[in-house]
Every structure is written in structure tokens, then in C-alpha cells.
Amino acid sequence: MKNKISLILMVMVIMVVFGSTHAQTLDWLKIHGFGGWAYAKTNGNNFLIGNEDGNWRTSQFALNLTANPYSKLSINTQLFLQSGLQQDDIELDYVFGEWAFVDAFRLRIGKIKSPIGLYSEIYDVGTLRPFYMLPVGMYYGPGLFPKSYVGLGATGNIVLNEKFEFQYDLLFGEMDFQTFKLEMPIGFNPITGPVMGKVNFTPIGREVIGGKITVLPIIQGLKIGFSYLNMDIWTSRDGGPLQRDDTIQNRVYITSGHFEYLTDFISLRSELYAINEDVKTHGGYIEAAVMFLKNWQAGVSYDWYENTTESSVERTMVKSLMDHSSIGLTLNYWVNPNLVLKASYYRVDGNGFAQPDWIHENYFAGTLEEKTNVFIAGTQFSF
Amino acid sequence: MKKITLLTFCMIVILALISGQSLAQSYKVIVNKDSSVSSLTKDQISKLFLKKVTRFTDGTSALPVDLVSDNSIRQAFSEDIHGQSVASVRKYWQKQIFSGRGVPPAEKPTDREVIAYVEANPGAIGYVSASAVTGDVKEINIID
Fold first, then answer.
1. Which residue of A has its CA nearest to B65?
2. What is the DSSP string of A251-265?
3. Which of A61, A103, A212, A267 best tests the B interface by mutation, with the highest count of B CBs <10 A?
4. What ipTM describes this predicted complex?
5. φ, ψ for residue B64 (rounded to 5)?
6. Candidates A30, A128, A264; nearest CB to B94
7. Staple partner for A212: which of A57, A227, A314, A367, CB 3.0–4.6 Å?
8. Are B114 and B10 in contact (CB under 8 A)?
9. Parallel, antiparallel, or unpaired for β B63-67 and A222-237?
């Protein structure tokens, strides 16, 4: 797998080197990309890209192509490669065509970037955020905001007057959510009791309808918005056939609100979300960063997540698995707007997303740590 | 003491006016000579260059062209028209590119190349230094 990724990376670098020259001569084709590399260490639990031993295994690279064969038609695609602690991935983030009838109505078809929230569309682009990682309690942990959906979408920009405009997105289709592992009994030993194992669950949202509306009021740099998704949830267990989860009978709906204020020196972002009906989860984050001494940036964040789904709470003895909160601090050096060095620290509370290899074993042994310190240092770039 | 305060205030006002004037005078906005557009507000120009609006008021498709990022005229244009630094505008385009929402205007390294681009493309709109000789293109009025 690593050889394949290296080979593809090499081909991409060659494409970028030759392609960028080529793209300048072809006005209808643009090549861009982004990536990053990080070291991550924790003081015990595994937390996303970090583990107790510390590792340099997290690297990402994406190649983005935009073609405009006609003025009203654009074709967009992005190939994403990732090497990490848990697995290596190669995926097509999106590939879709867009026909611009007018500025206020553009029709999209294909595997389309999910417009929900502030960061779904720019999920892995590290030069567009202050922290190396996205807010965990919203984007990575619960995995509720996928990068893309397959289906049909509409988007538009409506300028009401000089100082007031809004953007909208509508979507219909199917969404793949992030695969997650659950530690659960997979057998029974008459001497030792239940045998614990890890099971992969991949939820899929079917007949998804939703959208986002963002208002850009009079203050430059300010955005306020609201997103909504409504869907049937089907789940595949360890790559098996898709089935409806007995505990999720009704259509699930996710609502979220977002706020963003960006200037040359300050960035402020906050989002809140809630899932209702049979799955009950809520969370959010607040993130602030300030530039100083021209190239330096300091940032602070707080994010949280709470799962109050009755069936999930009943299923586990380890209550800290239902919660997560973290305070993050970051210090960044921006070489230029396309290249940044970041050093971030998180103090994580709860085992929602910070867990040892075997949770129940540690829980019964009394060694389950609910608090985790995480250090991440890395570089991120875009072109 | 009051005199000093008043004097300082006057000097600040004068400096602000001078710097504002020099900013506005350091570039001019040009369109193709066949374009019917003769004047645009700063906000209209900003929306055309950020591709939030893709047509002129007469309905023709707009084809904006920028100077390269490190050009001082680009910096003056960005501050005056967008009210943002070039770095902030580049961030805006990063976001548009990677969310599959659009790509930035073509960039040219010199005034001469911007003028040639505007001459060659009927819907083109660009900006060049105020001192540039703009033979076969039309300079437009910028309304505050």
C-alpha cells in the first residue's frame, strides 16, 4: 500500500511540475494541490493521529483539477492520498460537473463537495485554518460531516445590494460517513467470560436532503449561516451488506449553525450542531487566532461533544466514552499564505475520541485515563 | 496643549487624505475598447474580480485579469477595491479552489501584458499603474 502511495505521489509531483507549466498555457485547465506532514505524541491514549510513542506517520497530499471547457461549464475533481497511524487511503474526494445558468443558480451533478458547515468543503486544507487538525468534537470524532455526497446539488450567490449578499446550497443524494470502530463482545469463553473484539461500522445516509444558507451582512469578513441534513441511516458492519440499524427507526436530522469573522489579523469561528430523533448527539467548537509580528499566529480553541443516545448510553459501562471536550493552543509561523509550520497542544477530557487500544480491559484494570495531553507539530502547504 | 492636539489631529487628517489620494491614483481600471461599460463602483469592481458577479451590468461576461501577487499596484488595488490585503484575497481564492467553487482570475506579470489581454478579450477587465500608456483599451471611471 505504501509503495502504491509513493508511486502515485511521484506521478503527481511530475504532473504538478509539468502540469503547472501546461496549465498556464491552457486557460481552461487549472491544477492546484495541498498537503501536510506531522509528528504527534500523547501521554497515554491514542488520539486521532497521535499515540503514546509518538509518530511521524501522518502525511497527506491532494491534487485538484478544475476544467472550464465552456464559460458556463466547470468540471472539478480532487484526488486525496493519506498515510496515517491507522490506515493508508487513496480516495477521490469529489468529481462533479457544474453548469452556471446565472450567478444565482448553478446546477451540480456527480460526487459533490458537501457544503455543510464551515469546514466540510475544505476538510483537509491546512492553510485555511489555524490548527493542524479540524475541531475534533465536530468534524473528526463523530464523523457527522462527510467531505462529499453523490447526487444533485444547486448553489448560488445572490447580491441584494452593495453591502448585503447571501449564498445558498441545496443537496439531494447519498452520503458515506466515516467508518468507526466499536469495542464489543464478539464471543464467549466459558472460563474468562465475554471475548471483546473491534467491529467496524460504516454508516451511509440515504435519500439525503439538506442545504446551507450563509448570510454576508454589512461587516466585511463576517459570515453567519445555518445548515440542515435529513436522511435515512443504513449501516454496514465489517464490510458486510447494508442494513437498517434497529435502534434508528426514524429519519435522522442534523442541524448546525456557524459563525465566522476573518480579517487580515484575526480569525474567529464557531459552530454548534445537534442530531435529533433516535440518535442524540450535540457538540461544537469556538476557535480564535491572531496574527502578530507579521508571520506569527497564535490560536486557542475549545471543542466539545456529548452523546446522549439512550441505546448507546445503555450499551456501555464506560460513561466517559460518551463525552469529549478539549482545549487547544497553537503557535504557527506562516512562511507565506501557502506554507505554514504549526505546533499545537490539546488537553483532552473524556474518552469519546481519546482511547487506549483496549478500553474495557483498561477500565476493569482501573487504568483508563480520562484526560489526555496531545502534542502535534507539522507543516501544511497549498499551491 | 490644546493647540498641539489640534495640530496633530489636522496632520493626521491631511496625511490620511494624501495617502487615500495616492492609493486611488496609483492604478487605473481598464476594459476592452468595445465594452459599453464606462463607470463602475468599487463594490462592483470587487465583486467582478472575486467572481461573485460574472457579468457586467449590460449582460456581457466579465473576464477579470490580475497583476501578480507581489506587484505593488496589485497591493494598492486590493487594499482600495477589496478593502483587504493581497494575502487575504489569496486565502479567499484558496477556499474557492478547494471547495470546487471557482478559480482566480488569470495573473499577468506586467502592465503591458494586462493591456494586451484586455485588448484581445472583449469581456476583459484589468488594472494597471496610473502612469501606464493604455493605447487601445478604455479606462473606466471608478465611483466611490
1. A27
2. PEEEEEEEEEEE-SS
3. A103
4. 0.81
5. -70, 150
6. A128
7. A227
8. no
9. unpaired
pTM for the whole structure:
0.83
CATH of the domain at A331: 2.40.160.10
* 3-class secondary structure, A320: helix
Residues of B in contact with A122 (CB under 8 A): 95, 98-99
Residue by residue, pLDDT tens for chain A (383 residues) are: 555 555 555 555 555 444 444 444 467 888 999 999 999 999 989 888 888 899 988 899 999 999 988 888 999 999 999 888 667 889 898 999 999 999 899 999 999 999 999 999 998 999 999 999 999 888 876 677 888 999 999 999 998 877 788 999 999 999 988 777 777 667 777 877 777 777 788 888 899 999 999 998 778 889 999 999 999 888 888 878 888 877 777 888 899 999 999 998 999 999 999 987 777 888 999 999 999 998 999 999 999 998 887 666 556 667 777 889 999 999 999 998 899 999 999 999 988 888 888 877 787 788 888 899 999 999 999 99
Fold classified for B27-143: D-Maltodextrin-Binding Protein; domain 2 (3.40.190)
Q: Are strands A339-349 and A323-336 parallel, antiparallel or unpaired?
A: antiparallel
Chain B residues bordering chain A (beta-carbon distance below 8 Å): 41, 43, 47, 52-55, 61, 83-85, 87-88, 90-91, 94-95, 97-103, 106
CB contact under 8 A, A32 and B98: yes
Domain boundaries, chain B: 27-143
